[in-house]
Prior knowledge:
Blueprint: H1 4-13, H2 18-25, H3 29-36, H4 44-54, H5 58-65
Helix pairs in contact: 2-3
Amino acid sequence: xxxxxxxxxxxxxxxxxxxxxxxxxxxxxxxxxxxxxxxxxxxxxxxxxxxxxxxxxxxxxxxxxxxx
Length: 68
């Protein structure tokens, strides 16, 4: 389950908007929103791309993408 608050905070800090991030990782704007809102899960390849773009540490990645 994605931690929406942390995801959006990190996205904003990194200077991304939903539209630009979606394009970077090969999703539509609506598709990214569905994943941020936990309607769909992020694929491992998407998590890897986002982690690289955001410069996430393994701990940050876990807190954002694998929230309990």
